[in-house]
Specification:
- There is one protein chain.
- The protein has a 7-stranded parallel beta sheet with strand order 1-10-9-5-2-3-4, sandwiched between helices. A 3-stranded antiparallel beta sheet has the order 6-7-8.
- The C terminus is likely disordered.
- It is globular.
- Strand 7 and strand 8 form a beta hairpin.
- The chain is built from 14 helices and 10 strands.
- With about 325 residues, it is an alpha/beta fold.
- Helices cover about 45% and strands about 10% of the residues.
- The chain has 2 domains: about 45 residues, Arc Repressor Mutant, subunit A (Orthogonal Bundle); about 260 residues, Rossmann fold (3-Layer(aba) Sandwich), CATH 3.40.50.
């Protein structure tokens, strides 16, 4: 065999699952026995080259997906099931998101990722599938190890995704939040930082979650100690409901004139607009307000959420489709 073993397994799986070729025809094309093809397909499934996912598709789920598409122009993947725990539900969501990412990646792709426990779960669900010349870059400055950040640190997410895809790692060596806006402006002039920011803007795919500021399940930007009590008071005055990539948002998706945003290192709506595929992953009713804000802002092109979160968001749907654009002020 001229190919390496891994390449050969991948090629057999691609012919069988993507081209719908029979085992007999594959064996004839590759000049091997049919039993060899059968063993290689089993190896592809066992090693994670092929992942078979069963999703319950019902009319209710289809209606929800159509509703999200009509209101927000996104490709929605709404996961339904009988998961009784957040852990199980999160695992289901992560598996679907990981499958989408794997299908979108190509040799030479640039994937930009945020941090957090949900994104770490997606990273942990990725199969080992190498894409030569690909890169993974952080979407915001580093978090962790920090108070109340048990897992999902920037370094952990970056390393897990890069290892799964055989990609080059590109960390963003700045804090998640600067102490002073002037410090951020100065750092943005550094050539090493400009190189990372340029890679972010040239990403093919972006993967991120939505952080919740309100309710009992607040996300790491608000519990890690990175923001002061004065910062948190300001967020309340500005009616902030959460963030995407550490950029704070109001219920209508707006983010302008929020002082904390002048000190964040995260990618803004305008900066994310350059990324063709932007995948938002979230689950649980507590994420309804920030996910709805992100949808109103046009931040995502694709979403993976659970039916509980989807139903919570539909109760807050506007009376007509939002016309907000990602590159609007």
């Amino acid at each position: 065999m001229e190919h390496s073993r891994n390449d050969f397994v991948y090629e057999v799986a691609r012919m069988y699952y993507e081209q719908n070729a029979t085992m007999d025809s594959i064996a004839q094309q590759l000049d091997v026995s049919r039993s060899t093809i059968s063993r290689l397909l089993s190896e592809a499934r066992d090693s994670g080259v092929v992942q078979i996912t069963l999703e319950r598709r019902d009319e209710d789920s289809s209606k929800l997906e159509r509703a999200f598409s009509a209101h927000f122009g996104v490709d929605a993947h709404i996961v339904t099931g009988d998961a009784v725990s957040d852990v199980h539900r999160g695992t289901q969501i992560a598996s679907v998101a990981a499958r989408l990412l794997t299908n979108w990646m190509r040799p030479g792709s640039v994937l930009a990722v945020s941090a957090g426990s949900t994104i770490q779960a997606v990273a942990n669900s990725l199969p080992s599938r190498h894409y030569p010349g690909s890169s993974v870059v952080q979407l915001h400055g580093s978090i962790g190890p920090l108070r109340n950040v048990a897992h999902g640190s920037s370094q952990a997410v970056l390393g897990t995704v890069a290892a799964a895809f055989g990609a080059e790692e590109h960390p963003f060596p700045v804090p998640a939040f600067f102490d002073f806006a002037t410090t951020r402006r100065s750092m943005w002039h550094e050539r090493s930082i400009q190189r990372v920011r340029a890679m972010q803007s040239h990403a093919d795919i972006a993967l991120f979650g939505a952080g919740s500021f309100r309710g009992p399940d607040r996300s790491w930007p608000y519990t890690s100690g990175l923001l002061s009590d004065e910062d948190l008071d300001e967020l309340r005055r500005e009616h902030v409901v959460g963030d995407v990539c550490t950029v704070m948002m109001r219920p209508d998706g707006s983010s302008h004139n929020i002082a904390v945003n002048h000190r964040t290192s995260g990618a803004s709506r305008r900066e994310l607009a350059h990324v063709p595929r932007r995948l938002l992953v979230a689950f649980g009713a507590s994420k309804a307000l920030p996910v709805l804000a992100a949808l109103r802002a046009g931040i995502a092109t694709d979403i993976v959420i659970d039916d509980v979160l989807a139903h919570s968001i539909t109760t807050m749907f506007p009376s007509r489709k939002s016309t907000r654009r990602l590159d609007s002020p």
